[in-house]
Amino acid sequence: MSVHDDFDNDLDDHDGTDELDDLEGLDELADFDEFLRVCAGLTGFDEPELRATGMAHEHHRTVLAHRVRDEHALVHLWYVGAWPGESPGSARAYDGALVWRTFHADPPGAAAPGHGSWGDAPRGGEEL
């Protein structure tokens, strides 16, 4: 079951703490497979869906760099593509954020004609 099936119910019934209560410390999150297991429980997306974002290893490195055991920060990282209070580490992190999959949408400015397209004048716009 993925987040698409009953996302609203999961948010109402789940505060995420039980996923991390099983961990004795942050060291368990150092293991990539354990990191994915915990994140799957917190985000509502299963492990293959998290891997399919292409961001699993980058997000794992981000968590290890912050050395914080915070389920809210983990969820924020996956859904927004950035650690809370920071900008996304890359355009790929923004594009791969789970929020876009949840809304079944493309990230603004990231779909064709491509990421950063907002910085170029539209075709024919020079004439205006």
What is the topological layout?
Blueprint lengths: L2 H11 L3 H5 L10 H12 L3 H6 L3 H11 L4 H10 L10 H5 L2 H6 L25
Q: What is the chain-wise order of helices and strands?
A: HHHHHHHH
Number of helices, where a helix is a run of at least 4 consecutive DSSP H or I residues? 8
What fraction, in percent, of the residue positions are helical?
A: 40-55%
Determine the mean pLDDT.
77
> What is the molecular shape?
elongated
Structural class comes to: mainly alpha
Main beta-sheet annotation? none
- What is the total tally of β strands? 0
Distance between the termini: 50 Å
Radius of gyration (Å): 17 Å
Low-confidence stretches: 1-19
Share of residues in strands: under 5%
Overall description:
With 128 residues, the protein is mainly α. Helix content is 52%, strand content 0%. The protein contains eight helices and no strands. It has helices at 3-13, 17-21, 32-43, 47-52, 56-66, 71-80, 91-95, 98-103. The termini are far apart. Mean pLDDT is 77; it is low at 1-19.
What can be said about this structure in brief?
The protein is an all-alpha fold. It has helices at 3-13, 17-21, 32-43, 47-52, 56-66, 71-80, 91-95, 98-103. It starts with a helix and ends in a 25-residue tail after the last helix.
